[in-house]
Design goal:
It is a single chain. This protein has about 270 residues and is an alpha/beta fold. It has one domain: Rossmann fold, CATH 3.40.50.1820. Helix content is about 40%, strand content about 25%. It is built from 8 helices and 8 strands, in the order E-E-E-H-E-H-H-H-E-H-E-H-E-H-E-H. An 8-stranded mixed β-sheet has the order 1-2-4-3-5-6-7-8, with helices on both faces. Helix 6 (about 175-190) links the parallel strand 6 (about 165-170) and strand 7 (about 195-205). The chain is globular.
C-alpha cells in the first residue's frame, strides 16, 4: 500500500534547453488568500520532508502558509549526477578528479556548470506552471541545501531580482576553489546594495569528518557570512544560524524549520 502526501500533485516538465525531464512536486494547502511560493531544489530528497513538516509550522503559527514546489528528477538513479550538472555554476576539475578517484564519477556525458540553464528553466517553465495553476501572491523563495545552497547563492548574486527570499543551507562554498566567496567579494566591489532576504546556516560537525576536511564547510561558511555582514547593504535582510552537534545530513531538518520560520513569518 502506497502512502501519498495530501494536497500534493506531481507533474512532469521537460526542458528543451537542458534536454531533461524533471519531476515537479507541488504541495498547496487550502487557503482563502493567495500564497507565497517556496521553490525547493533536490526535490527527490527534500520535498517529502518539507511537505510533511510544514503543516506543523503552520498549525503553531511559526511560519506563514506557502505553496511548496520541489524540483527533482525522473531518473532517480542518476539524480546525484544530474544535480551536480544543474546546481553548479562552473566546472571544477579538482572535484571531478576527486570523485573519479573515489570510484563514483558522474554519469558519462554529464558535466558540471549548468546552473544558468537550470535557473532559466525554474524562472520560466516552473514558475509559469505554478502561476497558471495556483493562486500565488508573487512572493518567491528559492531554497537549497549543499550544492543546492551553492545554487541559491549563485542565483542571488547573478539574478537577485528573480526571487524575493533565499534559503542557502550548508552551501558548498568549496566549489571551484571557493568561487562563490570570490563572487560575493566581486559583487561588493560593483554594487552598493543588495535587495533581498537571505537565511544561511551550517552544522558545527560538518567539518569534523576526515573525508570532508577538504570541503572546509564550517570555515568557508564563517568566512562568507563575515564578509557579507560587513557590507552593510541597506536592503539586505541577512539571517544566519550555526547549529551545534549537527552534521551535513542531520542539519537538514533544522535548516528548513529555522529558515522558513525566519523568511516567512506569520
Amino acid at each position: 500500500m502506497q502512502v501519498s502526501i495530501p494536497n500534493t500533485i506531481r507533474r512532469g516538465l521537460t526542458s528543451a534547453q537542458i534536454g531533461e525531464r524533471f519531476v515537479i512536486d507541488i504541495f498547496a494547502p487550502a487557503s482563502k488568500q493567495p500564497l507565497p511560493v517556496v521553490l525547493l531544489t533536490d526535490g527527490n530528497m527534500m520535498f517529502p520532508m518539507v511537505a510533511t513538516s510544514a503543516p506543523l509550522l503552520w498549525s503553531a503559527r511559526d511560519a506563514h502558509k506557502f505553496i511548496l514546489v520541489g524540483v527533482g528528477y525522473d531518473n532517480h538513479a542518476e539524480a546525484m549526477s544530474l544535480r551536480t550538472r544543474d546546481l553548479t555554476p562552473s566546472m571544477d576539475d579538482v572535484y571531478l578528479d576527486r570523485i573519479a578517484a573515489s570510484g563514483k564519477p558522474l554519469k558519462q556525458g554529464i558535466m558540471p556548470g549548468g546552473a544558468d540553464a537550470f535557473l532559466d528553466f525554474l524562472q520560466r517553465d516552473v514558475r509559469q506552471t505554478v502561476e497558471n495553476n495556483y493562486a500565488t501572491n508573487g512572493d518567491y523563495t528559492l531554497a537549497g541545501h549543499s550544492l543546492g545552497g551553492l545554487f541559491t547563492l549563485h542565483t542571488m548574486f547573478s539574478k537577485p531580482d528573480h526571487f524575493d527570499r533565499y534559503l542557502a543551507g550548508s552551501p558548498s562554498l568549496w566549489w571551484n576553489g571557493g568561487e562563490m566567496i570570490q563572487r560575493e567579494r566581486s559583487f561588493a566591489r560593483n554594487n552598493q546594495d543588495l535587495q533581498s532576504a537571505l537565511f544561511t546556516s551550517v552544522g558545527a560537525e560538518e567539518q569534523n569528518s576526515s573525508q570532508n576536511d577538504w570541503a572546509q564547510m564550517v570555515s568557508n561558511w564563517h568566512r562568507f557570512r563575515t564578509d557579507l555582514a560587513t557590507r552593510n547593504y541597506r536592503s539586505l535582510n541577512l539571517s544566519t544560524r550555526f547549529f551545534d552537534n549537527e552534521t551535513h545530513t542531520s542539519v537538514v531538518p533544522a535548516t528548513w524549520s529555522a529558515g522558513l520560520r525566519c523568511l516567512l513569518p506569520v
